[in-house]
Amino acid sequence: MTASSPATPSSTAPVWFITGASSGFGEAFARYALDQGYRVVATARDVGKLAAIAALAPERVLVHTLDVTRAGDAEAAIAATLARFGRIDVVLNNAGYGIVGAVEETPETELRAQMETNFFGAAAVIQEVLPTLRRQRTGAIVNISSLGGQLSFAGFSAYSASKFALEGLSEALAQEVAPFGIKVLIVEPGQFRTNLAGAAMRHMPVLAAYQDIIGGTREFAHAMHHAQAGDPYKAARAIDVALQSDTPPLRLQLGEDAVDAVRVHAQQLLADLERWAPLARDTRIDTPAVA
Fold first, then answer.
1. Is 145 part of the annotated catalytic residue set?
2. How many domains does the chain divide into?
3. Active site residue 159
């Protein structure tokens, strides 16, 4: 079945398990999947915010509480999914939030909380779902990273750190689970019209020393709220198309800004690598010649 095919009969339709489905990308993923005739497990910390999704197709939607930072929640949600639908085809690790602030402005508690949700939360879901996907010998894990998972900017250090970590885990995971027929897709969106720049973005207290350095980043984060060019629904379609490809990518950039920024970053990386290669290579232990 392709992303533009007629709706699949509900008894055989793919099952999309989505974290953070109450708004933004997560809500768009759920709506898109339902439009395709798929079955959806919509999870969030507050299930009351999932009522609209559940009402779209009650026979094909399971709503379940899932706080990715709370022990036992992922296990319970996955068990409920298997009891209702019998399988899981696509796991979309979407739950997360952002932080704006210089490293020195960001308390350790905030750094740890950022990692707890964006990295450890996704890892917990992955670890809970893998036994099911391995038994099925099929399935896909989609980890929603960011343009900031490939490169970072002043003021986004904590957020990028969490996404860099998620990408490192995902790259190894892809190699570990490929023999079981499981796909891993890292999604790197640029600016999309979600709540990331609104309620899902925490702004750290300002230190005067960083006002001129981080001020522009703070203004950018505020200004882009509800002004982003990216359509989350189209992002869902792109993910579906990529997953159905015979040769899906490991990383999928979404949005012109993401494509352009990652390209420039990669070109700079290669340029630096070439420039400094002689020095980098000249680090071997000098072994005296044997007489």
1. yes
2. 1
3. yes
